[in-house]
Design a protein that fits this description.
The chain is of the alpha/beta class. The chain contains 3 helices and 4 strands. Helix 1 links the parallel strand 1 (about 10-15) and strand 2 (about 40-45).
Length: about 150
């Protein structure tokens, strides 16, 4: 078995409040970019439902999350994660166990935009920003694919 770089996390959890937009985008992008064998999860402190715009902008780059569902933090084992990434900006982020390595990427909730075109623009920007950050995290320059004009 090949030696795996210990700086690259084996289990990553993305957290926000509703697990409907930012953390769903992050989980899907990370599943595409992360090395084989990496466990990628997402959850929220107050889960709601997967935002249709998250499904749409991921579909634009060939990622299907139409069957995804929002999960609560009680459905995952945060203490087993190598890394927890919180994505809240304007809200209170979920509390993470002290022993777990943490990163905080404060991203505004794209679902807070007014109007369909502005919301679509913000979801795409969030998806693309996460692609860059997650690529850096895993030492990858992998592209998930260009957005299609819809």
């Amino acid at each position: 078995m090949a030696n795996r770089d210990r700086s690259v996390p084996r289990t990553v959890v993305f957290l926000c409040v509703a697990n409907s937009a930012r953390s769903q985008l992050a989980e899907a992008v990370a599943r595409r970019i992360a090395p084989t064998g990496t466990i990628v999860l997402s959850a929220g402190s107050n889960p709601w439902q997967v935002h249709p715009m998250a499904v749409r902008v991921l579909d634009e780059v060939g990622i299907d999350i139409s069957g995804a569902r929002s999960k609560g933090m009680d459905e995952i084992h945060l203490e087993r994660a190598d890394l927890v990434v919180t994505l809240c900006a304007e809200e209170v982020c979920p509390v993470v166990p002290a022993k777990v390595r943490k990163l905080h990427w404060p991203l505004e909730d794209p679902a807070e935009a007014w109007g369909e075109e502005e919301m679509l623009k913000r979801f795409r920007e969030t998806r693309d920003l996460l692609q860059g950050k997650i690529g850096e995290l895993f030492g990858a320059s992998a592209e998930i694919g260009p957005a299609r004009d819809v």
